[in-house]
């Protein structure tokens, strides 16, 4: 076999698929435009583009609607979708469980508890919207409370996970802790005044339109810090795919990474939940969709792709929630569950078993 | 103190599990361990089930804390090394199952570069060369692009070994690398490890419960006995001085020093004098022993079997006091012997 051999370095299969990344970006831009164009007032696409590039539109009212209402809403959808999806991805890798996600493991419930406690501490005179309308400081209070609530539940689950190695058991424990948290919230509701309960209930329906333009930067900071930490964790996350022992034997600090994964997920899930209410199923569905699309588990590819995919999915859900052609809007968390559940079922059936899609 | 070729050594090492919760006192699995892994040698760690093979391997890699005593890496206590530094000197293949998919063999092997790559894990030219070398050394070139999920057990084990090689360490510690593998795969893995030890001067330690494989493959044996002692030596020495036998002693079976294997069957029938060509005689002997005959090498028995071979055909001749009988297969031979036995009872 003295045949001439090619000395080109072989290109081995890695998950970097520039074409798919390009498609995701294009898809995101298209959905963003559609999202901006939708609403109770019809604004021509041309004018929207004009406003976006910084020029005046034909009508001053259109200008205001786009800048003060639709852009914050669309940006919120992009940030929330990305943040929740990456939070879900981190949970799935940390617990090595394909069914893990911020909402399933009670982390969202923990964030709800944090918000509920703040509203309780606000006492008789304030409600969540009163706090939120007050100032950026008020928003920070809720973000911090929600993040602490999320972190508390996540820490509890992590402590249990040291004792309980079995993933399914851990998942059930997570569900139970979520239930427990929700029970605490309902006790609080029982002793609260109807106006407060109403505010809280509306918060639980989820909303992407509740973030005013002047507070949007808080959400941006939270999402970018959380997402940045997640990106920086790509290497240990890849190691954790093989299990903690292998990760350690390859020189990765498992305990340190665990803490940072929790910090990142708490910020992402807690921050988003504080601003938008509990939005379910994005966190669990998007990582699976992204793995299917990219065909890799390499987090260096998976995290950016998940960010894009999450933004796309939540923008699409928001478009559905606005019921194009009508003035009604549906609660966003109901829409994400309606879209997310079939997606998870589809992924499981298509891949024959969940482990394979993980 | 430091032997120039020694990679990992232990001094008065006690391994086990610390007192915790309801466990009031620590559980010592093995104690006073003084062993040494040298570059270029293949060491097999043998011991009955539950004797602490995995615990010892995990302790040597720093995944598990020793109860007492020291683990030395290049003559220096393991405690003085950061996790990353240990990972540059010792790589492991564990029994932990890999359950993920959506990752190619190449990507998995490349994970082995983790102790050397930057915070983002990007591979430079040298990293890529080492990954290519590891893939070639483990002989897994033909499926580098396959999803890890779609590998057979033997292929997956070779991929995990390639990943350990990519870690470019002076010692490779493998916990039961041949468990769940069929014979050709077992042989292939052992051959691969021996080749690596020889060519790269890595020190290779593998635990196994397959005694015959260990006897054939190891330069040195580490035997964990039932009372928690670790005895080391060259396999043949340990067999000849009876240590091997005493460690694995069990009522129901015996170790046969003359064949280096365990006998499963207690002879309960008469002695047979077996003669003939080496290969057919070897297999005939096994069949006879399974039937319960005692096979002897000197004449003087009432029953004699002679094996003849011509190219690929064989013939067996049973010579008893009464008559002679020819058989064309071992099946025939065994049936004839059974008839013979019955007629005489």
Describe the 3D structure.
The complex is a heterodimer of chains A (358) and B (345). With 358 residues, chain A is mainly α. Chain A has a single domain (68-357), classed as ABC transporter involved in vitamin B12 uptake, BtuC (Orthogonal Bundle), CATH 1.10.3470. Chain A has helices at 18-37, 45-52, 60-94, 107-121, 128-134, 136-163, 167-190, 194-205, 216-232, 234-240, 244-249, 254-276, 282-294, 299-321, 332-350, 354-357. The longest helix of chain A is centred in the first third of the chain and has 35 residues, at 60-94. With 345 residues, chain B is an alpha/beta fold. In chain B, 33% of the residues lie in helices and 27% in strands. Chain B contains 11 helices and 18 strands. Chain B has helices at 53-60, 83-87, 105-111, 125-138, 153-166, 183-200, 211-217, 235-240, 243-247, 278-291, 330-344, and strands at 6-17, 27-33, 36-38, 42-46, 68-73, 76-77, 90-93, 171-175, 203-208, 220-224, 230-233, 254-256, 261-263, 271-276, 294-296, 303-310, 313-319, 324-327. Chain B has a 6-stranded mixed beta sheet with strand order 7-8-9-4-10-11, sandwiched between helices. In chain B, strands 1, 2, 3, 5 and 6 form a 5-stranded antiparallel beta sheet that branches. Chain B has a 5-stranded mixed beta sheet with strand order 15-14-16-17-18, with helices on one face. In chain B, strand 16 (303-310) and strand 17 form a beta hairpin. In chain B, helix 4 packs antiparallel against helix 5 (153-166). The A-B interface holds A 9-10, 12-15, 96, 232, 234-235, 238-239, 241-243, 245-246, 248-253, 291, 295-298, 300, 355-358 and B 58, 61-63, 83-88, 90-92, 94, 96, 98-104, 106-108, 111-112, 114-115, 117, 119-121, 128, 144-145, 149, 167.
